Structures are given as C-alpha cells and as structure tokens.
Amino acid sequence: MKIFSAAQLKKADELSIKNQNITSTQLMERAASHVSAEIHKRLQNSDIAIKIFCGVGNNGGDGLVIARQLIEKGYNVKVFVVNYTDNRSDDFLINYDRLKETTNDWPEYIKSASDFPEIDQNEFVIDAIFGIGLNRPLEGWIAKLVDHINYSNAFILSIDMPSGLFSDRIPGEEDRVISANFTISFQTPKLVFFLPQTMDFVGDLQILDIGLDREFLSSEKGQAELISKPEARLLYQPRKSNSHKGNYGHTLVVGGSYGKIGSVLLSSKAALRTGAGLVSTFIPKCGYTILQTALPEAMVIVDKNDEKLTHIDHGMDPSVICFGMGAGKDPETLEAFKQLLEQTKNPMLIDADGLNMISEHKELLKFLPKQSVLTPHPKELQRLIGDWKDDFDKLKKVEEFTRNHDVILVLKGSHTFIFGEGNIYINNSGNPGMATAGSGDVLSGIISGLISQQYQPLAAAILGVYLHGLSGDIVAENRSYQALISGDIAENMGAAFQSLFAD
Ligand SMILES: NC(=O)C1=CN([C@@H]2O[C@H](COP(=O)(O)OP(=O)(O)OC[C@H]3O[C@@H](n4cnc5c(N)ncnc54)[C@H](OP(=O)(O)O)[C@@H]3O)[C@@H](O)[C@H]2O)[C@H](O)CC1
Ligand SMILES: [K+]
Hints:
(6S)-NADPHX binds at residues 58-62, 131-137, 160, 326, 377, 441. With 503 residues, the protein is α/β, with parallel strands linked by helices.
C-alpha cells in the first residue's frame, strides 16, 4: 500500500470530487460513514459515554458526521466544538447544521481552558480536532486540551491522524500531540505512523478505503510503500517442479569468532530454511564441530586461525556471500574482509561487524559490490552515516547514502525500512518479541538465501524482511513475545512461506 503526503492526499481528494462527480460534502459523508460503521461494529450498541471533540476544519467536519450517524443509531454522544478559529470550513458548517437537525443536545463550544469538560476514564473519546491540515504546533488552551484528553485515561480514537501530529515533520519536545489508543485513517497510512519518533502516538491503526480516485492512487509515486501480505506475495517466485539444488544457488556465510559461533549458525540455518540450494559456512577453526553437529546440512570451511577470521580463502564460486555476523574487528579480520570485498563481484550481504569495519574504514565503501545489501540497526547506521537531526533527516541521509554507493539498505527497527532504487519500503510484519539476540543474524540468512535463489537484491530484502517478521508473528502466537528466541524464527520459515498464501 502506497503512503502519500498530505499534499498528494489533497490532490486525490480534488480529483475524486471531479471525476466521480460528487461534492466535497458527499466525500466527507462517505469517509465518515465508514468510520461510524466501524465504531458501531466494535461498540455493538454499548451505552458507553462518547465524547467527540471536533475542530472547525474538515477533520472536525468528519467528527460532526460521525456524531450524527452515531446519534441516529442511538449512541450516547456529546459533541464539543474546539473553536480554535472563527474560520470554519464549508463542510464543517453544513454538517454542523445537519447535526443540529438530528439532536436537541447541541454541541458545546470550547474557547478556553475553563470550558474543558470532565472526562471519565471509562468514557470513549473521539479526536476529530486536526487532521492532515495541521501546519503549526498547538498553542495555549488547545495544547492544554490535548493534555486534558491524554491525562483522562479514557480510550481515545483519532480520526485520520492523532491531533497535533504533523504529516511531514517531527513535533518538537514541547509540542502537544494526542496519544491515541486507536487511529482510523483515510485511504492510505501516513509516513509518521511508522517513524520511531512518532509511531507511539498512533496506537493501533486501521486504514479505511474511502474510494479516492483509483487512477491517481495507482499512477502517483508514493512517499513510501507499506509492505503487508499482498505486496510480499507479489515478490514471491514459485519453484519449478523440474529443478535441482543447483537452481537455488549457493550461499556462503562468513563470520564468527571464539564465543560467537552461534551467530553464523543462525544465519546458515535461516538461509537453508529459506530455500538456498547449498549453504557453506566459513568460520574460525573453533566452530567446526559446533557447526557440523548443529547443522549437518551445511558444509563447513575453516580459517587457519582458531579464534578469528584471518584469511577468507574459500575457493568457491558462491551465488552470494553473507558477511559479518559475530566476526569481530580484529586487524587481521579487517584485512581478510578487505581482500574478500576486492575479490567479490556479486552483490553481498553485509551485517554486524562487517558494517562496523566499514564505518571505521570508510575507504572500504568503494570495494562494495554494486547492489549489496547492508542490514544495520540504528546504532550501526549512525556509525555508518553519522548523526541525523530527526527521523525525516535520517530518511534523507539514508537515501543519499544508498544512491551514492549503489546499495540496498535495510534499517532494522520495530518497523524495518528498506531503501533501494530511490524508493522506501516499510515492513508491516513482526512484533516486539523479535527484539532478541540473534534475530538480525537470522534476517541476514533469510535475505542471502533469497538472493542465492536469484531474487534481485532489493526484492530479496523486502520479501526477506517481511517473511522474517511473519515467522516471528507465527512463533509469538504459539509461544508469547517473551519466550520467542531467534532460532524459532529460522525454524518457522516453513510456516511463514505457507502463511504467505494461506488466505
Ligand atoms: N482526502 C482525504 O483524505 C479526505 C480528508 N477529509 C478530512 O479532512 C481533513 C483535512 O481537513 P483540513 O480542513 O484540510 O484540515 P484540518 O481539519 O486538519 O485543519 C483545519 C485548519 O486548521 C488550521 N490549523 C492548522 N494548524 C493549526 C494550529 N496549530 N492551531 C490552530 N489552527 C491550525 C489550518 O488553517 P489555517 O488557515 O489556520 O492555516 C487548517 O486548514 C483530513 O485529515 C480528513 O479528516 C475529508 O473529510 C474526506 C476526504
Ligand atoms: K484527529
């Protein structure tokens, strides 16, 4: 699903009105009807007290339509107009009149802090104060109202966006933003719903299709693309029945040091479980018995050195090399890595200490094979590209980096971002249980396993990240977030592949 900016959504709005021959009031009615239907489905005629806070723009207009429709269904609704200006939008005014025709319990106006209503924690608050039109921080009593709503501990549903959240920048530390439990957003998610600095304001998220212009939505390039099952499915390459292991390539996993052989084991197992035809593992001598015992399906080649990598003379022609997990940064390992980079022409996957060595020796960047996949977590990214001002600045800097070095970058996080070929993809699978030792090693193995099966590196990164999260979701369902360990993610890749096409 594409993610559009506020300006793009306004354009989609205008085009829909024109091409579908409807008024903006009708579009608002359509959008809000979807929301009230969704609320009705969940509340099931409950007599819970509903307080709806409406701004005086179109987000507020949505709130008024929702209020009218819920009142018509018999819900216990009280409407408050957050009168931040006397300039009301046309559709606000039209729906204000319609609401007054529906109920004798007219909206109350909030013009200062003394007008704030009490909000009980057992009530249900709908936040329709500001949407994508917010263009400056909330001030004065409006900011205080946001605190008042947040501190009530009532359940908060935000319409389109939590009020106070900008669609195109990060709020300052002093800025007030509604902390929603649930956000229902129109047509496409907004980029800020997925950024680490702003995602917590959103709560659970639901996107409602309000029928905006199809032609525009499909032809317009989005700011980013959200990857859920339908998008991941499109990347999957089915196997031919007439094939043999040679068709699925050879993944060479290189890494490990004394005490850190487990990392390479996890990557190798994940590559096999993802379908690599052959997996070889190049490690220091100390890991030989461990690898051969724990993973008999992999071939093992050892370094001359017992405890660290010093000469990576693998003598093979692998489809892809996955480098760095548990490798350490010993000067001899650095030299061996440099030689490996110089010799390798196929795209590589580089993780962990491979990334750290590049960060400390930027001259290595020029030896990176084109289209290699780098998989940093935020700290590794910072070492690689330096500091950023905020999450928007970070996106810009990573895009520049991937363009300058012709690489794919997988930025790991609760929503992993994949950067490549001028696009940003945001993963929508996975769960907090996956923040566990070795989870990244498994991801490296999965992506490498896909590249070895002739997936393009970018497709391998997107699908690999999605499957990794999906497998983690399947494990968490059976085992809890707490008990999930990264070996389980590799073990459950089979269930993840099956689930990709299950419904
Ligand atoms: N295409 C769609 O997705 C549809 C969206 N709908 C809904 O419409 C809103 C967007 O409505 P809009 O009227 O453009 O904007 P807001 O309601 O968010 O804001 C209204 C005005 O408020 C002013 N503003 C901005 N920031 C502040 C602030 N900090 N303090 C006070 N006032 C502020 C600003 O006007 P100015 O002239 O003062 O700059 C805003 O214009 C969208 O989110 C959806 O909920 C449609 O209902 C369906 C289609
Ligand atoms: K809102």
